[in-house]
Design goal:
- By secondary structure, this protein is an alpha+beta fold.
- The chain contains 4 helices and 4 strands; from the N terminus they run ααββααββ.
- It has a 4-stranded antiparallel β-sheet with strand order 1-2-4-3.
- The longest helix is centred in the N-terminal third of the chain and has 29 residues, at 25-53.
- It is elongated.
- It starts with 24 loop residues before the first helix and ends with a strand.
């Protein structure tokens, strides 16, 4: 075979590496995955260090960290786009839906009346319901009636006497739906 273009006895792969020097598939996958793990770990470490530079509660306090002061818009609020901010938005949406359900239940079982709940005005501006009646109806919807009522009063949706309503003791307390 002298003088002819014959293939050599050592087979070469497309990368130019002899087949005998190449690793098996399992070994190559292991090397690739360990390299990937190392790169991913380093990337996470770098991101975490950068995050800690801006975290005012980090043990590694740097002068470059600006701690929000009272009165600023971002004081007491999570970073925009963070998972904490998303959980807050989700909770706000959930509470808003519960407030709507409460107002709907009060409209369904309540009686038109005035703000004092004595029924003298029947123009329909206000809906009144006793706490005991609302509790019996609303317990099938949610077990957080008193908390939702407190939140609704804070937002100006309902009004009732006292700081807290207790089942049994305040069953005849009048709750007025303002809107």
């Amino acid at each position: 075979m002298i003088g002819t273009n014959s293939q050599s006895n050592i087979m070469e792969t497309e990368e130019g590496i002899p087949a005998s020097a190449k690793f098996g598939n399992d070994t190559a996958a292991c090397i690739v995955s360990v390299k990937g793990l190392k790169e991913n770990w380093q990337k996470w470490c770098d991101e975490h260090q950068e995050y800690q530079k801006h975290n005012p509660f980090s043990q590694d306090i740097r002068p470059s960290v600006m701690v929000p002061q009272r009165g600023h818009d971002d004081y007491g609020r999570p970073l925009q786009g963070s998972m904490t901010a998303q959980r807050g938005k989700d909770a706000y949406t959930h509470i808003s839906k519960e407030l709507e359900e409460l107002c709907g239940a009060m409209r369904n079982i309540g009686h038109p009346g005035d703000k004092e709940g004595d029924g003298r005005s029947s123009d329909g501006r206000f809906v009144t319901v006793e706490f005991g009646e609302l509790f019996e109806h609303y317990v099938t919807i949610s077990n957080k009636l008193v908390g939702i009522l407190l939140r609704a009063r804070k937002q100006g949706l309902v009004d009732f006497e006292g700081e807290m309503l207790w089942q049994g003791r305040d069953d005849h307390a009048v709750i007025t739906l303002l809107q």
